[in-house]
Design brief:
The chain has 317 residues and is an alpha/beta fold. The chain has a single domain, classed as Metallo-beta-lactamase, Chain A (4-Layer Sandwich). A hairpin with a 2-residue loop joins strand 2 and strand 3. Helix 9 crosses helix 10. The chain is globular. The structure holds zinc ion (ZN). The site of zinc ion has 5 residues, from loops. Zinc ion binds next to loops.
């Protein structure tokens, strides 16, 4: 028999927020994307505005399974505490079973500074709000939050090692498998791209990176490549300092570069996001189309893209 009991089967991408930061240069939410697989959803990055954007997209916490952090720049993680605190427990239709937060550890070559990786970021956030959390556990019959949030740090290959260019698995459950690869976002290390595969297809996220051969390898044959884009002309023409301009040039990708990566990967669709430097949609699309022949979307906050839709035929069900 065919299982048609659920109306929502398939794999969708929702670009919850598409702006780089930490600066507000327009109306779009900060960088965050949702991947919806059947009745569950996953997030890639937690930029400013993602909590409201997820809610407006109809995503409630009880359907949240895992979040993946590309790197620890604040514009990618600033709203992780807010998202967890706003989506926890039955009073808000939140999660009441464990969820996973996967992200980079601290830079192993960072010496004696003892900077925080994903584990400490999550633990510190829960500690910072421990008063609120304890009050609500007792007062609102919510489960202890710390028991439900499982942080884990990606075991990234060492810089310059033979494995540094190879994709590696970081997460799997009954719906998805997630692989990662190191990308080039100096001086940030580790900086990761993620690929999420399901029975329906795949979506690959560049994270923040200069034009990356590793990313093209990770994204080989992917259904959708979500790639960052920078408008260098904006920064060159506005009197930013040489150091700031050098960061934009060495650590991010102009849209024509995103198109080259999509072409090298054989990606079926290119979705541009994480826009740094304002420009109109036509600028982003035209530049990317100069190097990539496939369909190109200039993402906006809340836009939805279907990778595949059901219903799924389940043998024996
Ligand atoms: Zn970054």
């Amino acid at each position: 028999m065919t299982d048609t009991t659920s109306a929502q089967r398939g794999m969708d991408l929702i670009t919850l927020g598409v702006a780089a930061g930490p600066a507000i240069r327009g109306p779009e939410h900060g960088i965050a994307s949702a991947v919806v697989v059947d009745d569950a959803f996953y997030l890639v990055d937690f930029g400013i505005g993602c909590t409201r954007a997820a809610n407006e997209a109809g995503l409630r916490g009880h359907r949240f399974r895992a979040g993946f952090i590309t790197h620890l720049h604040s514009d990618h993680v600033i709203e992780l505490p807010g998202f967890l605190l706003w989506n926890w427990g039955r009073p808000v239709h939140g999660f009441s079973t464990p969820v996973h937060i996967v992200g980079p550890g601290p830079d192993p070559e960072d010496g004696t500074r003892h900077l925080a990786g994903t584990d400490r970021l999550v633990a510190s956030a829960l500690d910072a709000f421990s008063y609120d959390i304890a009050i609500r556990v007792g007062d609102e019959d919510r489960p202890p939050l710390a028991d439900l949030v499982r942080a884990s740090e990606v075991a990234a290959p060492a810089r310059g090692s033979a494995a540094a260019g190879e994709p590696f698995e970081v997460y799997a459950d009954e719906r998805i498998t997630v692989t990662a690869v190191l990308v080039d976002h100096p001086p940030v290390h580790p900086a990761l791209a993620y690929r999420i595969d399901s029975a329906y297809g795949s979506i690959t996220f560049s994270g923040d990176t200069a034009e990356s051969a590793n990313l093209a390898r990770l994204a080989e044959g992917t259904d959708v490549l979500v790639h960052e884009a920078v408008n260098l002309d904006f920064y060159r023409s506005r009197g930013f300092s040489p150091a700031f301009l050098a960061h934009q040039e060495n650590s991010h990708t102009p849209p024509a570069g995103a198109g080259r990566v999509a072409k090298a990967a054989g990606a079926r669709r290119l979705v541009l996001s994480h826009f740094a430097g304002p420009a109109d949609a036509e600028y982003w699309r035209t530049e990317a189309a100069s190097t990539y022949d496939g369909p190109i979307d200039v993402a906006t906050s809340g836009a939805r893209f279907s990778v595949a839709t059901g219903p799924v035929v389940r043998a024996g069900s």
